[in-house]
Amino acid sequence: MPSPFFATIFLLVLFIGTFVSCTEGAPRAFFVFGDSLVDNGNNNYLLTSARADSPPYGIDYPTHRPTGRFSNGFNIPDLISQELGAEATLPYLDPELTGDKLLVGANFASAGIGILNDTGIQFANIIRISTQLQNFEQYQARVSALIGEEQTERLVNGALVLITLGGNDYVNNYFFTPVSARRLQYNLQDFSVYIISEYRKILMRLYDLGARRVLVTGSGPLGCVPSSLASRSVNGECAEEPQRASAIFNPLLVQMIQGLNQELGSDIFVAANAVEMQTNFITNPQAFGFVTSKIACCGQGPYNGIGICTASSNLCPNRDLYAFWDPFHPSERANKIIVQTLFTGSDKYMTPMNLSTIMAIDSL
Ligand SMILES: *[C@@H]1O[C@H](CO)[C@@H](O)[C@H](O)[C@H]1NC(C)=O
Ligand SMILES: *[C@@H]1O[C@H](CO)[C@@H](O)[C@H](O)[C@H]1NC(C)=O
């Protein structure tokens, strides 16, 4: 009685064929790893204080409601998805991330984490980077069950990946207390060399998991965020020690990426120099249409830089006029400037090339 068997095979082929044809011509998949600069809402599902799930977060998002993004509106991954012509990636923990939606990609990021495992321990339950990578493995198993192993590998190899780490290793680790364990252990230079060597291992693991185009960013100008101005600056100038941290970290990151690509014999990794990108609008906010880069739109105390943004904080009426949304995170409009630079920036910002060039090469 072969007919039911063949009928099953036939249906199976039809089923797989439908999925495969659905993925052809679709935007490439997009995967996101890292901290609060890129978290799309995973922490909403966790017992942690590191969350952006209450107003006024999301006030300029299309729904005007908080989503878990640390922004008044779109964050950097959203704006990259838009450039790719794709839907925003869902948080990996979102129950809606099933079926066809898995083929868009996924966001594994979690606010508060860093390169090191002991970064952000005060936030309790957050998804550390090694677990984010395990979740990526689990994701691939789920997609394999849907479209098969070979198609899954193609989807992952063809994807764009974004990873953003490092800022919290300074803010929520090295600088967290005046006598942090890390500070006793390392000077700033040696600490930076150490976390870059750990970042390298994380990137190699991403490569082993199939990532072939990875945009790597580090910390912005840490001394210039409203939080640093409020707690460490004397006259409103960028705070010296965190600035020195960013100035050490970013060139080391670029160097490490160049070495890694050389070793792999291919431009797998692309470094974005977040300090160079943000220094322009921080030193000359008016040229970019901002009224200030020192005062956060939402917060309290000097520069609105003390504590976190909540419903009872000061809130500016027009978020587009502020470079910083809260004491730590850029506004949606600043994010747009950053993403524009990722796509079209010169080699001052992007090593070895910008995303427009990458998209052009990859579409050949
Ligand atoms: C962090 O923890 C993971 C999982 O336990 C481990 O594989 C990794 O080596 C740790 N990283 C550091 C820098 O200790
Ligand atoms: C991207 O980078 C290349 C090479 O540095 C540069 O020539 C080009 O103008 C940049 N912008 C775009 C949109 O490609």
Automatic annotation (TrEMBL):
Top-rank lineage group of the source organism: Eukaryota
Leader peptide range in chain numbering: 1-25
Coiled coil spans: none
Gene3D superfamilies with a match to the protein in the record: SGNH hydrolase
Annotated keywords: Hydrolase, Lipid degradation, Lipid metabolism, Signal
Example of a GO biological process term: lipid catabolic process
SUPFAM superfamilies noted in UniProt: SGNH hydrolase
InterPro entries registered for this protein in UniProt: GDSL, GDSL_Est/Lipase, SGNH_hydro_sf, SGNH_plant_lipase-like
Keyword presence, Signal: yes
One annotated GO molecular function: hydrolase activity, acting on ester bonds
Family stated for the protein in its record: Belongs to the 'GDSL' lipolytic enzyme family.
Name used for this protein in its record: Zinc finger protein
Source organism: Solanum commersonii
